[in-house]
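Record filed below.
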Amino acid sequence: MLLLKNKKAYYDYQLDQKYNAGIVLSGAEVKSLRLKHASLAGSYIKAMSGKSGKPELFLINAQINPYRFAAKNVNYDPKRSRKLLLKRKEIEELVIASEQKSYSIVPLAFLLEHNKIKLELALGKGKKSFEKREIIKKRDLKRELNKKLKRSQIKI
């Protein structure tokens, strides 16, 4: 079940391969996400070396607002870094693609699968501004054609 979607990512990036990752959250954060009190706008995924020297992925700058019925935690940071849980092989694929092939690792959505919160992420290349304008033009033309078709069908 889709909880939150990063609509801007679909507009800004040409997405290739998608992955589902677990995410390390506190209990109050899970409850807040289930109520859809979060945002992926401006968030990104970064690979950092872990304790064993192997790369780990972190979700950075994603806002998960505090659960309002939880005990007030004075030190709670809604934009803290959160560790992503993937298989070692998948992490290596993502890190290699991001470093060598100039891909970005983009967070797409928060999902609820089997009562567990998952993060859908993808490899993507940034679109140029002229590509974005072309997409907008195509979308507007399609919308106008649909309006004209509806009008012509009603008049008959």
Q: What stands out?
A: The chain has one domain: 2-127. The CA atoms of residues 3 and 34 lie 7 Å apart. The chain has a mean pLDDT of 88.
